[in-house]
Task: inverse folding
């Protein structure tokens, strides 16, 4: 099945996102990688900007298995969950946000992620990969969701002239 993962980092983002992509490529078949975007932190402004991108993967694993594998990659890259700052700085944040044709709860994971229509740093890189894809339960394509998210964003994502590949 085709799945989409959104990656972010604001602690040494170039090497950490490069390592995250390499880890993804070791575990899954990477089909496509979006451009990289600089984005303002959300919910905890006292930290550096993030670098975000989306990756399209092919997998035969369940959403729960993919989700667990993403958390393992985060841990290998030094991600620490600070209860005092749940939206604070991080080396790597990998989120499964969309799986072709699947909608509902899968363990602690909701697919497609509601962040797709609310957060531009999720919607914009996804739209780069599959602009005409209409996620299950959504009336708009990823392109239209990205346009709507950017229109409502005080600090929309800024594309960086950085190429990261697995």
Result:
């Amino acid at each position: 099945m085709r799945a989409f993962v959104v990656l972010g980092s604001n602690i040494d983002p170039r090497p950490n996102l490069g390592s995250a992509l390499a880890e993804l490529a070791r575990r899954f078949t990477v089909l496509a990688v979006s451009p990289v975007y600089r984005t303002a932190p959300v919910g905890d402004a006292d930290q550096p900007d993030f670098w975000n991108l989306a990756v399209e993967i092919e997998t035969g694993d369940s959403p729960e298995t993919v989700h667990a594998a993403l958390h393992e990659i985060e841990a290998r890259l030094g991600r620490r969950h600070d209860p005092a700052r749940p939206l604070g700085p991080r080396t790597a944040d990998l989120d499964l946000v969309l799986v072709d044709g699947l909608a509902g709860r899968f363990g602690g994971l909701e697919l497609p992620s509601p962040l797709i229509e609310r957060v531009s740093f999720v919607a914009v890189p996804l739209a780069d990969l599959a602009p005409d894809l209409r996620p299950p339960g959504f009336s708009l394509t990823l392109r239209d969701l990205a346009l709507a998210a950017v229109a409502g964003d005080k600090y929309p994502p800024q594309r960086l002239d950085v190429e990261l590949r697995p």
Observations:
- The mean pLDDT is 92.
- Residues 36 and 53 are 5 Å apart (CA to CA).
- Residues 2-159 form a domain with the Alpha-Beta Plaits fold (CATH 3.30.70.560).
